[in-house]
Prior knowledge:
Layout: E1 2-7, H1 14-30, E2 35-37, H2 49-52, H3 63-75, E3 78-87, E4 93-100, E5 106-111, E6 117-119, E7 125-127, E8 139-143, E9 146-150, H4 159-167, E10 172-174, H5 181-199, E11 202-205, E12 209-211, E13 217-219, E14 223-225, E15 231-234, E16 241-246, H6 250-258, H7 261-264
Amino acid sequence: xxxxxxxxxxxxxxxxxxxxxxxxxxxxxxxxxxxxxxxxxxxxxxxxxxxxxxxxxxxxxxxxxxxxxxxxxxxxxxxxxxxxxxxxxxxxxxxxxxxxxxxxxxxxxxxxxxxxxxxxxxxxxxxxxxxxxxxxxxxxxxxxxxxxxxxxxxxxxxxxxxxxxxxxxxxxxxxxxxxxxxxxxxxxxxxxxxxxxxxxxxxxxxxxxxxxxxxxxxxxxxxxxxxxxxxxxxxxxxxxxxxxxxxxxxxxxxxxxxxxxxxxxxxxxxx
Length: 271
């Protein structure tokens, strides 16, 4: 299976975001990608909560998701919208991954489980949970006979989620992200490789990159890791672009046979 990862610098409005991402999706499809994966926040990025929330719509009404559904039909490809920031039926917001079939229908959705809430020694703080309602379920989906585990950005730091997905048969993990520059430089590649090695699965990590309209800086460096932990494709910059890679589903089975950590895990009591 050939995959295409799209690295974006998503603007702060839906119309601009769709105009930004569609040429990159078409480029990935022209390169032979059967599955195209986009980053976290592919439909809009705006860190000002008061400016963001009035723009959010229900998933069914989101213009970027609907534009990508049309693109999937036109290009005859799977598109995994790494995440769209959308309104829930209860009026709260969700950070939601959306897997689109080649006929434009939605195969699966996943709401980000882990919220980044932090108080830093500098006095700065972040409260993702102030804007988004976390999900409560892990999700897998099958694409052309290959099982994928769907996760988003900060989920990366919670290995138990990936072990559960692997035990459910996931051979490929999607980890679309909008990593900050400091944490990206320090942790991005090593954590992606760790999740691949621990689970014997491919990792697909499309990223936001560069300086955005809302003045956030994201790390970029989208990458693909194979089940033995080697980076097999990577963008070495934070500019918008496309990364192509070939996946061999048999590689996951081979890695898990060589290091049967999933099978050898044992329950234990706490300290």
